[in-house]
Amino acid sequence: MATTATSVTDLCRAARAASRRLATLPTAEKDAVLHRIADALLDRTPEILEANARDLQAGREAGLSDALIDRLTLDEGRIAAIAAQVRDIAALPDPVGEVIDGFRLPNGLDVAKTRTPLGVVAVVYEARPNVTIDAAALCLKSGNAIVLRGSSSATQSNAVLAAIAAAEAPEGAVQLVAGGGREELAELATQDDLVDLIIPRGGEGLKKALVDVATVPMIFAASGNCHVYVDADADLDAARDIILNAKTQRPGVCNAAETLLVHRDVAGAFLPGALRALREAGVELRGDERVRAIDPEVAEVADTDWDTEFLALVLAVGVVDSVQEAIDHVNRHGSGHSEAIVTGAYAAARAFELGVDAACVYINASTRFTDGGEFGFGAEIGNSTQKLHARGPIGLRELCSFKYVVRGDGHVRG
Amino acid sequence: MATTATSVTDLCRAARAASRRLATLPTAEKDAVLHRIADALLDRTPEILEANARDLQAGREAGLSDALIDRLTLDEGRIAAIAAQVRDIAALPDPVGEVIDGFRLPNGLDVAKTRTPLGVVAVVYEARPNVTIDAAALCLKSGNAIVLRGSSSATQSNAVLAAIAAAEAPEGAVQLVAGGGREELAELATQDDLVDLIIPRGGEGLKKALVDVATVPMIFAASGNCHVYVDADADLDAARDIILNAKTQRPGVCNAAETLLVHRDVAGAFLPGALRALREAGVELRGDERVRAIDPEVAEVADTDWDTEFLALVLAVGVVDSVQEAIDHVNRHGSGHSEAIVTGAYAAARAFELGVDAACVYINASTRFTDGGEFGFGAEIGNSTQKLHARGPIGLRELCSFKYVVRGDGHVRG
């Protein structure tokens, strides 16, 4: 039997109670919890692998694709890597208690805007069981209780991993929703009295399913339709290196480029060499008329290609008349994730920086740097393309709220 | 006819287009817009009053309460005050372009976390037509386009006020949803492709109606069930002044106190005088058994009173055994708005500050200071009790998002 309707609420209520204790837990105690979780992952590796084998067998019987089976698979090396990641998170600075801002009011009141945990964070994820531990570690370090809801294909693996984390964490701080159905998801997403934030990690289908029912505030680690724009004044060698890196270094991730835009003045000089290099790297090219006039081997781009996150070695290529046309194209078709301009012209860089509406705007750099690790945040739970609260990498600080602490000497309002 | 289904989307689409231009509008131009709006409000006062008179007549015919009629009423003085508020907002610092954080990565990339407008903000409000202009001015100053949806009782007044703002603002930047029905509200609240934030300003009914349908991220200016806790080590004169101020200075607002908690060690010394002063100020008192043992004139408190935002001269009073019991009470019954402790003891102050989960925690000061004006934010669109994005006063900065601007020299990821 799946978890009954009542028990999702019960899990959340237990997490809420735990969150009160976690909020004031000293950093050293939180770090000790994380190290104990890492130790337990190593000690209990055989148990984890056994549970994982049961998931894998069920997955093969259910006809899961090779890609999904790979994402589901754990081995000793992967478990050791998960444990190492937990220790890395323990080593990060504690965001709780940071004073973000502080000032004295004219009446003498001292105001300190101080970072606090959010409280209870729910994470809904698909396939990869390592997320169970990564998400729990990030939430515990930031003083939050966590309610996990993984996919049904990883039920056995997630159960063991969550049990390991729960055993080492303060009582109630790590909760796992046992049922994998849409009903449990809807119930979790409507616990706005008990859950402060819900983060879906998965495809657009999961996000859509949640948007329609959620009353809990949501931040989604969203898709990225990212662009590289090569300006008239670009260093063309740097531009070629950047689009190659952005498209091919890891094509299946959200900060990979999906569209190359080139200013008409350099299209003739830039495109033949760049497209050859991209093709040699295995990239399928789809271009507009002006691109195809330069390189007839390029396939015809479809209107929908401009809006597609290929997550594969496919690239849409277009020629534009100006930096403004590039900005307009990016704002119309982009998903607000990571957008790059390559230029030597100050005015073009400034126009692009100011005009593009995205979490990360790059000047003469690859879009691939949008990442909590690269940004020095240490670890992330995803990249947000929303504009509220967290935009870009969601690290420990983004898993926090704040409170104003106001100190007076008997102050009353006149 | 009310606005048709299509046209809410059309309004939002026009606002989205305008938001692109607003995002890069220089501060001086935004301020000039605001001063032109203030001028036009004064110039067109007769027209506003005429429209308002039609709303008032319709309201009286519909049997609106005196309180609602008062909230709906404009006169020359009130219009002049609205215009003055617009000029005050023009005088505030522009939040757009502020660099919130900045650092150089080990690879030499320079990252600047820079404040940007959110884009399109929808404000849904009840009765008071002045919100039309206040909200529009705050959004324009922070570089956002605004979609307004007022109550049907203020249709005529809002139409004139919104037209005045729209005429002076960049084309499309100020939109008013004409229809006041739930259908238009639901359509507005599900424009997640076009609207970045929706702020309800009104009662719990409006909030609930929105939570259930909204797919647009929401921040609500919420209710406040605020507490004053008088600790064993409190200066009892200061404590009396603070609870009097917090309860009676303006009882109908969200940062007024609704519950007084007193440590048992000072209940006998504190309560008789404090309750007398409160009663003399017209406050109806409802206490627990220990309070009534000290002052039998106090009525019996009902369980539901602890959870009630009276917004009136009514106060629940309880005796607690410890600061921890006070903290637990506040976290169980409070709405996370504004909570105060009165104490001379460092340990109690620190426990309360760390343990209470609220937007604003006061030590030896009245809860009444939670206010954008008091905090030096200049103006606010409400006070948030949510934990994401904005908590406490929602001022110009809270109406903003940010982007990471990353500057390199041909950087690619290895």
From TrEMBL, chains A, B:
InterPro entries: Ald_DH/histidinol_DH (IPR016161), Ald_DH_C (IPR016163), Ald_DH_N (IPR016162), Aldehyde_DH_dom (IPR015590), Glu-5-SA_DH (IPR012134), GPR_dom (IPR000965). It is an enzyme of class 1 (oxidoreductase). It comes from the Bacteria. It catalyses: L-glutamate 5-semialdehyde + phosphate + NADP(+) = L-glutamyl 5-phosphate + NADPH + H(+). Its EC number is 1.2.1.41. One of its GO terms (cellular component) is cytoplasm. It is found in: Cytoplasm. GO terms for biological process: L-proline biosynthetic process. Residues 3-281, 306-376 form the Aldehyde dehydrogenase domain. CDD domains: ALDH_F18-19_ProA-GPR. Keywords: Amino-acid biosynthesis, Cytoplasm, NADP, Oxidoreductase, Proline biosynthesis. One of its GO terms (molecular function) is NADP binding. Pathway: Amino-acid biosynthesis; L-proline biosynthesis; L-glutamate 5-semialdehyde from L-glutamate: step 2/2. Pfam families: Aldedh (PF00171). Belongs to the gamma-glutamyl phosphate reductase family. HAMAP family: ProA (MF_00412). Catalyzes the NADPH-dependent reduction of L-glutamate 5-phosphate into L-glutamate 5-semialdehyde and phosphate. The product spontaneously undergoes cyclization to form 1-pyrroline-5-carboxylate. NCBIfam families: PRK00197.1 (NF001221), proA (TIGR00407). This is Gamma-glutamyl phosphate reductase. It comes from Baekduia soli.
